[in-house]
């Protein structure tokens, strides 16, 4: 998005932006991470210009990282809103990435949870391109749903 905004010199013309964006994907090397990701995940959806524009030209979208996302959440704490967790907790589990090394896992588990999330993001950036998370008004009581099935 930022690259297309730079190429458009700040203009927000929809048709020009879509044409320019499609041209970028056409000429990027096949080895480009952006082009590879587009082909793997979004190419079919992005055939329609409106979907392509929403994905790559959205002027109000912010590219968050774990620290910037959680800083935003901290900014609304005075409203009683709290971060309740990600919708895909298994993907954030560091065992998935470094679980084969007891030494690394021991070090990682010493980190605060937010830094553990950041470590997962840094170690697997292609997985964390979008964030789905829950916010709550006040603390959430965690329940063990295994007991409910007994």
Structure description:
It is a single chain. By secondary structure, the chain is mainly α. Helix content is 53%, strand content 7%. The chain has a two-stranded antiparallel sheet with strand order 1-2. Helix 2 crosses helix 4 (49-56). The longest helix is centred in the first third of the chain and has 14 residues, at 14-27. The termini are far apart.
List keywords for this structure.
about 150 residues, mainly alpha
Question: What is the secondary structure topology, with strand pairs?
Answer:
Elements: H1 2-7, H2 14-27, H3 33-42, H4 49-56, H5 66-74, E1 81-86, H6 89-92, H7 95-98, H8 102-110, H9 113-123, E2 133-137, H10 145-148
Antiparallel strand pairs: 1-2
Number of strands: 2
Ends: how far apart?
49 Å
Task: Report the major sheet.
Answer: 2 strands, antiparallel
Q: Strand share of the residues?
A: 5-15%
Global morphology = globular
Report the order of strands and helices.
HHHHHEHHHHEH
Helix percent reads 40-55%
- Strand arrangement in the largest pleated sheet: 1-2
Pick out the low-confidence regions. none
């Amino acid at each position: 998005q930022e690259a297309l905004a730079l190429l458009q010199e700040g203009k927000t013309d929809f048709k020009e932006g879509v044409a320019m964006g499609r041209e970028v994907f056409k000429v990027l090397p096949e080895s480009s991470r952006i082009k590879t990701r587009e082909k793997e995940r979004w190419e079919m959806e992005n055939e329609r210009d409106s979907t392509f524009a929403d994905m790559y030209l959205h002027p109000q979208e912010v590219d968050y990282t774990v620290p910037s996302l959680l800083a935003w959440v901290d900014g609304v704490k005075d409203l009683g809103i709290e971060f309740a967790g990600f919708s895909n907790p298994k993907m954030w589990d560091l065992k998935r990435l470094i679980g084969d090394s007891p030494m690394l896992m021991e070090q990682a588990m010493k980190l605060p949870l937010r830094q553990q999330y950041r470590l997962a993001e840094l170690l697997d950036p292609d997985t964390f391109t979008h964030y789905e998370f829950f916010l709550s008004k006040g603390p959430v009581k965690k329940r063990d749903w295994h007991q409910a099935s007994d």
